[in-house]
Automatic annotation (TrEMBL):
The keyword Transmembrane applies. SUPFAM superfamilies: MetI-like. GO terms for biological process: transmembrane transport. This is Sugar ABC transporter permease. Its main location: membrane. GO terms for cellular component: plasma membrane. Keywords: Cell membrane, Membrane, Transmembrane, Transmembrane helix, Transport. It comes from the Bacteria. InterPro entries: ABC_transporter_permease, MetI-like, MetI-like_sf. PANTHER family: ABC TRANSPORTER PERMEASE PROTEIN, INNER MEMBRANE ABC TRANSPORTER PERMEASE PROTEIN YCJO. Pfam families: BPD_transp_1.
Length: 300
């Protein structure tokens, strides 16, 4: 009996040793920089200061009196919420359609998923050309060619609509990824349930509401969590499209952080913003996970 326990303990130790390289990489790449950022957030660390001085909560207090960061918080929240909702709103109908017996469903799945493969930076640059007001701007020129020139806009230069243009690009790129998650989830739903619903006289809408939508809860949890986190951390796409402009119209938390840190060289201040972002995303993710987990338990 004792020998068996020793063997089991030895086997567990061997498996844990195999985890050490991954844990070491995690500590070097993520844990160490995170701890250093937390430490620097309480200092006046900058290239202009020869010595680093402890300043307490000053950086954190200054953040909430910074007009640029106030706009960034507003835009990041709008971007994250809109992206998360619209991504699923388009992905679910697409997934349902492409889970049917359409002959070209595999080709269509590939087509819709392809934008997700490319870098957000590349997608941003491509759409910056599409949104351009110059002679090569695809959208405005197409509108003029079909007699709808009055709908042409300065899509990225108008402060009133620039953020919505950025959200459109994010939804265009991210819908395919969410669609594939929903398709995978749909394929796990027993077909017998739909057959029983038809026998009971349920309409297609009732089947969707009570069966499809309920069983999509796990995929919805994943897409909601990743959508909110990705939306709050968006950077490359905004840089490629507007670089945070015009003015602060598309400024996000990450673009503001990079500006304060690497343009103004206020590393301590930028570290404080990074800490606030990290805590905020952790809290939002925890709340989402609790709500969505309860929803899964209730529906399933």
């Amino acid at each position: 009996m004792i020998s068996a326990k020793k063997k089991k303990f030895k086997s567990a130790i061997e498996y844990e040793i195999l985890l050490l390289p991954a844990l070491l990489g995690f500590a070097i790449i993520f844990l160490y920089p995170a701890v250093k950022s937390i430490i620097y957030s309480f200092t006046d660390f900058s290239v202009f200061n020869r010595t680093i001085s402890f300043i307490g909560l000053k950086n954190f207090i200054d953040i909430f009196h910074d007009d640029r960061l106030t706009a960034a918080i507003k835009n990041s929240t709008l971007y994250a919420v809109s992206f998360t909702v619209l991504q699923s709103a388009f992905a679910i109908p697409l997934a349902v359609a492409l889970d049917s017996k359409i002959k070209t469903r595999n080709i269509l799945r590939t087509v819709y998923y392809m934008p997700h493969i490319f870098s957000a930076l590349i997608i941003g640059y491509v759409w910056s050309f599409n949104f351009s007001t110059s002679s090569f701007g695809l959208i405005n020129n197409t509108l003029k060619d079909i007699g709808l020139g009055f709908l042409a806009q300065n899509w990225l230069g108008d402060p009133r609509i620039a953020i919505y243009s950025c959200i459109f690009v994010a939804v265009w790129q991210g819908t395919g990824y969410a669609m594939m998650l929903y398709v995978a989830n749909l394929q796990s739903i027993p077909r017998e349930m739909y057959e029983s619903a038809v026998i009971d006289g349920a309409s297609p809408f009732q089947s969707f509401r009570h069966i499809t939508f309920s069983f999509l809860a796990p995929a919805m949890t994943i897409t909601t969590l990743t959508g909110m986190i990705g939306g709050l951390k968006v950077y490359e796409q905004i840089v490629a499209l507007t670089n945070g402009g015009p003015g602060y119209a598309t400024e996000t938390l990450t673009t503001a952080l990079m500006y304060r840190g690497f343009t103004e060289n206020r590393y301590g201040y930028a570290s404080a913003l990074a800490v606030i972002m990290m805590i905020g995303i952790m809290i939002i993710s925890f709340i989402q996970l609790q709500i969505l987990s309860k929803r899964e338990d209730k529906l399933l």
